[in-house]
Amino acid sequence: MPAPIRLRELIRTIRTARTQAEEREMIQKECAAIRSSFREEDNTYRCRNVAKLLYMHMLGYPAHFGQLECLKLIASQKFTDKRIGYLGAMLLLDERQDVHLLMTNCIKNDLNHSTQYVQGLALCTLGCMGSSEMCRDLAGEVEKLLKTSNSYLRKKAALCAVHVIRKVPELMEMFLPATKNLLNEKNHGVLHTSVVLLTEMCERSPDMLAHFRKVSLVPQLVRILKNLIMSGYSPEHDVSGISDPFLQVRILRLLRILGRNDDDSSEAMNDILAQVATNTETSKNVGNAILYETVLTIMDIKSESGLRVLAINILGRFLLNNDKNIRYVALTSLLKTVQTDHNAVQRHRSTIVDCLKDLDVSIKRRAMELSFALVNGNNVRGMMKELLYFLDSCEPEFKADCASGIFLAAEKYAPSKRWHIDTIMRVLTTAGSYVRDDAVPNLIQLITNSVEMHAYTVQRLYKAILGDYSQQPLVQVASWCIGEYGDLLVSGQCEEEEPIQVTEDEVLDILESVLISNMSASVTRGYALTAIMKLSTRFTCTVNRIKKVVSIYGSSIDVELQQRAVEYNALFKKYDHMRPALLERMPVMEKATTNGPTEIVQTNGETEPAVLETKPPPSGLQPASQANDLLDLLGGSDITPVIPTAPTSKPASAGGELLDLLGDLNLTGSPVSAPAPQIAQPSFLLDGLSSQPLFNDIAAGIPSITAYNKNGLKIDFTFERSNTNPSVTVITIQASNSTELDMTDFVFQAAVPKTFQLQLLSPSSSVIPAFNSGTITQVIKVLNPQKQQLRMRIKLTYNHKGSAMQDLAEVNNFPPQSWQ
């Protein structure tokens, strides 16, 4: 049989292929020749054939038929055969295939071989693809090589030990004696792998972490790091003028683990961290990498305040770097530290605001979130000016988050009511189509409570919608205000700015234009028709025209609009004596608070008020197309996380998934047919704004509880009692996330025993920001007519780190004040 072609010739031949089909034909032809050679037990060219197979495997073609040939090469006495055999094993074998167990004995023999390079091949293979069974069998040999004086073998043995610990954590203590002298080695390769091994042990075992803190590992690491910083030029380890940056980064990461929540260890490393931060060259990317690790270490340990300011100043310098990646990590790091070192981050406010103009969208988003986190009472005017300019020019995907952040920051830090109203109106004019659903009722409430600003506000809104109905939330607020304060608009009583001369007919022209505009949504038309009806008690000369408009819409194809018009016609015809009282001006509205004043928490630069607000219900509520099993059993209340639906009287269905969720909450027996509690909701006639506080103040003393705390997700419950029905307990949940990644598609479901009735309102969001930088709030209403002890089973679903998560929990520790 002729000798097979060499690997180099095969590569050259494959590269000459002009099409994919031609390449496949060459590969298939060569694979057939290799199979024939394997069948003939040709030992002469086995090494060459396996090498060619590995190249084909790298191109994506199947090469599994060469697995046993790799084992034969490993068993060979030639070093060249062993080298290709072990390389083939690492590429073609893994622990899912039983074939790999056949090489355990060969690896054990080679670990005890007299040649260090053969021992190195065996260590590399075990550290790459060794299964837990292999690691248990060969851990003793690895531990012996870890104690050897040969630097070449020690560094490979240390990395192999890392793999053994990951596969079999209980073998960790076997390697503890060998770690005592590892950091005394002068070889940088051994030092690097030793630090990796120590880091793995500290991360996986709290006992190991405590042991290394006790044996003074920190001073040894500090000494090594100091020698690296102070050492002169070493061509063997120099990278862009810095001595072994890879080892420096590894040591800084290990110091971060050792110093976390430990005062003594943190104090021992403060000086060296300051030296690294001040002596590292920043002109090259290598130096920036070391400085970034230094900053992370300073922020994670119990460092001195001056050192933390130094770290934040380093991040501030990063913001001026031309490299986008460096600017991004700087913004991300500042966002994590802004809560603990707010004043130090404030010094870099102008640089952060400049990042809003960056062309990179990820840098823009981080800069926007950080800008909102920096807003306070002292800088709110300047920051809002910059953020409003950003809102004008930013891409559509930023407008919703930016508008929400401006609303909430203005609510918390507004220097005056006029400034607050002007700011929100500017947002509605600029990005009205992108604001959240609660923006309209919140602004209406703000305007209602600002009695002295009514004439100014209605005049500004009237001018804002002249001829432009594209921003629907703005048109809704303007329609409501014109309906409430149309008499102030016509009388020209505005003292804040020059009044405009408007007639009653001109006001009605605007509202009628909203009704007939193709851009007006059904909800907007409802606002406009209600405003026209209210003007029948504010205007004196146009009542007949108003009657005509209302009667026209009595035959509208929009059912919601038709119903309103019919009811308003009835007011004119049958109950005209009641019309002035029904349509009188709305009183000042009070916002319900949760356990005291409104609490606003940071949410990645946004702020979320943890309060339950009254909202106008959307017109034409439709039941969900797919009923949730849980809700069917509890009376049909829909808890879809975006749109709350009206409670129904649908009987329960004893579904399997539902019963799993409810567990032993005494839900067996006859199905529940009672509807969900009909909490009194405001009539749309008054645009959904209640004139009475929804909750009383006696519940302010009810303590909050932690209902769930697992895998970084924490759910807190706070309680209120309804003013209209003492049997109703209102629970506000707050979900926070302490992990390093956001939790998305978060859905909270709850169930109670059949003696209770439950209703869930819409959550504030479906994304829980990472690092406890924000919360999701959602309101639960529980009707407890028999005043029994409250119990609840909750179900949580969300996506985290690319995986769908689901968990069940039972809450039994409700405070007595919440249900008695």
Automatic annotation (TrEMBL):
It is a peripheral membrane protein. InterPro entries: Adaptor_Complx_Large_Subunit (IPR050840), AP1_complex_gsu (IPR017107), ARM-like (IPR011989), ARM-type_fold (IPR016024), Clathrin/coatomer_adapt-like_N (IPR002553), Clathrin_a/b/g-adaptin_app_Ig (IPR008152), Clathrin_app_Ig-like_sf (IPR013041), GAE_dom (IPR008153). SMART domains: Alpha_adaptinC2. Pfam families: Adaptin_N (PF01602), Alpha_adaptinC2 (PF02883). It is found in: Cytoplasm, Perinuclear region; Cytoplasmic vesicle, Clathrin-coated vesicle membrane; Golgi apparatus; Membrane, Coated pit. SUPFAM superfamilies: ARM repeat, Clathrin adaptor appendage domain. GO terms for biological process: intracellular protein transport; vesicle-mediated transport. Belongs to the adaptor complexes large subunit family. Subunit of clathrin-associated adaptor protein complex 1 that plays a role in protein sorting in the late-Golgi/trans-Golgi network (TGN) and/or endosomes. The AP complexes mediate both the recruitment of clathrin to membranes and the recognition of sorting signals within the cytosolic tails of transmembrane cargo molecules. This is AP-1 complex subunit gamma-1. It comes from Ciccaba nigrolineata. The gene is Ap1g1.
